[in-house]
């Protein structure tokens, strides 16, 4: 659809005043895949839905647990035991019935990743393990789909925008997969801040409004409310970019 309804004009009025009708139409036509519906995915999915991204694909295989609820704010106490995709779908469809929401109740593997991300305009990394992040990064570079990484630990977090053909990928940033850590300690609001920085980067890529931070590692430290930005160069030794980037 290349038009906005009267209800959509009212719903998005405040942001249309900033970036215009054509940008809002771009959001409506866009498809964003969110891989992981934990803390990062909770915040990014909520605000992408509120922004009017017309098609959201929610990917997660897990069920809601009590220990999730300090940070995974899209899930509530009454959702414990429910699939995270269903829990998120129920909230988002009530928040914005104007958008389409697809649920994939599965984990990401090398075998299914291309099918999961197909037709996406952006893939959001809301994952909690490095192995899967690298699988998604590699597939996005190969399929020329922008990929926005985010990660958190304790009072700190990071965001890194990968736009294939224009800059570095996650393997350029981290040539070796970091050691996995179970039950990463984290404070809920920090996850929200980092996820919303990630969401703003998605907004800029989708609308063309603003300056996306491509190939820039944005590091957030809540203890001092500081943000540091580091430019990352594409590595000639990157096994992914050297073939597909």
Number of domains: 1
CATH topology: Rossmann fold
Mean pLDDT, all residues:
96
Would you identify the CATH H-level superfamily? Answer: NAD(P)-binding Rossmann-like Domain
Estimate the helix proportion, in percent. 25-40%
Low-confidence stretches: none
Order of helices and strands: HHHEHEHEHEHEEHHEEH
Beta percentage is 15-25%
Distance between the termini: 32 Å
How many DSSP-defined strands?
8
Strand order of the largest sheet: 3-2-1-4-5-6-7-8
Overall shape: it is: globular
CA radius of gyration is 17 Å
Total of helices: 10
Could you describe the 3D structure shown?
Strand 2 (55-59), helix 5 (84-95) and strand 3 (100-104) form a beta-alpha-beta unit. The chain has a single domain, classed as 3-Layer(aba) Sandwich (Rossmann fold), CATH 3.40.50.720. An eight-stranded mixed sheet has the order 3-2-1-4-5-6-7-8, sandwiched between helices. Helix content is 38%, strand content 18%. The model has no long low-confidence stretch (mean pLDDT 96). It has 245 residues and is of the alpha/beta class. Helix 2 (13-19) packs across helix 3 (21-29). The relative contact order is 0.15. It is globular, with a radius of gyration of 17 Å.
